[in-house]
Predict the 3D structure of the following.
Amino acid sequence: MILPERLAKSFTMGMLHVHPSLLPRHRGQTAIQTAILKDDESTGVTISEYSFQRICGGKILAQVPYKLNRTSKFSEVQQILGQLGGDLLGMALDHLAYLRAHAIVQDESRATYARPYTDDDMKIVWEKMSAADIYRRFRAFYGQMSVHTIWRKKTKMHKLILLNMYVPDPDVPLMSMDFYKHAPGSMFFLNKVPYLEVPCVDGGRIHLLDLLVAGRTPKTALQFVNGYLLKSGALRMLTDPVEPKKRTPPFEYPAGHPLANKESID
């Protein structure tokens, strides 16, 4: 929201804005999440004059960058940028007159906006999302929201929340020689191995460490296997629920995929 302009007259020295991105990139309230989703190499903190005409559109007084990596998670980045923002704000207040004299007008042609996200954005679409896409979405909302999918147990549909995951190194051996004969979303396990291995539509894979069946208690991968899974690779997670009395439809690869013209996989 943009505050009423009349508030400006309440502060003799004006108002400053602390924002967790390098403006004018990612204006809005979900800048950190959007930076991770867009796979940005870096983000940062900006101190600017508060704008009463445009969200995050005031003159830039100071900025400090922060490099992201392939495992950066929202809660971690939020904490780090909060500390950086506090330190930068202290510096800005100490040198406010100088910074205002050298303030930079934002280049509107470079402005991007971070939209609000909802639980629908947390849904995994197995027919479209690569392993990197799924992991990036998990990281972007870690500590705030959780990615989820559908898991069918007999005739009941359950929302399955994926609490912890990672993308394994390519040289980590597959759990099964039949791994890629199964549809994306299938769950593989081995005795005493602390993760579930799941193929994705791009040929990549994710490892799941902790899961939560909605309405129940969180479980480690081993606990989930002991409680629900009987055969490795036999069950798969779904994008959408299936009517209770109907058979789970075979997996359909998207148009253009190398396996799109072959028989669908159960």
